[in-house]
Amino acid sequence: MLKIKFLQNPFIFILGLALTTFTPTPSPAATFTYQGDTTTQPIWRRVAPGNPPTLISGERDGTLGMSVPYSVFDFTVDQSGLYTISGSSGSNIKWDIFLALYQDSFHPSQQLNNVLIASTTTTGGTAAFSRELTSQRKYFLVTTGRRIADFGVFTNSISGAGKIIPIPESDLLPGVLVATGITLLLHKRKNYLQKR
Predict the structure, then answer these.
(1) What's the mean pLDDT in 49-70?
(2) Are 55 and 175 spatial neighbours (Cβ–Cβ below 8 Å)?
(3) Residue 16 backbone dihedrals phi, psi, to 5 degrees
(4) In Å, what is the CA distance from 27 to each residue of 16, 24, 148, 161?
(5) Which of 46, 32, 43 is nearest to 83 (CA)?
(6) Distance CA 37, CA 35 (A)
(7) Residue 87: burial class (beta carbons within 10 Å; 0-12, 13-18, 19+)
(8) Backbone φ and ψ of 174, nearest 5°
């Protein structure tokens, strides 16, 4: 007759149960979506589409190219991997959106420095691309129009394996530092007056 021993080694059973219960599962892809408007933004002479772009708009034709309003979104990711970036124009008025991704820094008059990829749509639809991003590096997503008449409300999405972390605009940093300094001075003054 066949004898079955239910638990020959309780340690192996407990270890197996623990591994089954606590095995990490891959986290779902993170998506960060934001809206903006290029209508009243500064103007720049954008890059031409490419991976990476090698020309500024108009260089091949010997023209001034496209000088269009733009908006910049600074961000970083907490996990290296493949990320998909997409942008679409507003739902009421469609315009040809143009996206350019920069790494480490962005300056509107040095368009070809640090640019990784640029993509556009010619149908008023969605511009999209995928790119490997490295954790803790700064990225700058520039949203602009394909032509001079292309500007307005837009929605951009960034999705990938890790969390997308917006970086506060550097223009706000001096104001934040001043406000923090004033707050500290007022707090010290209050403590000084209470001790008297």
Answers:
(1) 76
(2) no
(3) -60, -40
(4) 23, 9, 42, 8
(5) 32
(6) 7
(7) buried
(8) -60, -40
- Phi and psi at residue 6, to the nearest 5°: -65, -50
pTM (predicted TM-score)? 0.70
E strands, the chain, are 30-37, 43-45, 67-77, 81-89, 97-103, 115-120, 126-133, 139-145, 153-160, 164-166
User: 25-180: what CATH class?
Assistant: mainly beta
Q: What are phi and psi of 127, to 5 degrees?
A: -95, 135
Phi-psi domain of 81 (left: phi exceeds 0; alpha: psi -120 through 50; beta: other) = left
Cα 174 to chain centroid distance, Å, stands at 23
Sheet with 153-160, strands from edge to edge, namely 30-37, 153-160, 81-89, 126-133
pLDDT in tens, 87-115: 988 766 788 888 999 999 999 888 889 99
Q: Which residue has the tokens 């007759």?
A: 1
Tokens 């309003």, residue located: 69
Residue 89's identity, in one-letter code, is: S
Contact 112, 195 (CB under 8 A): no
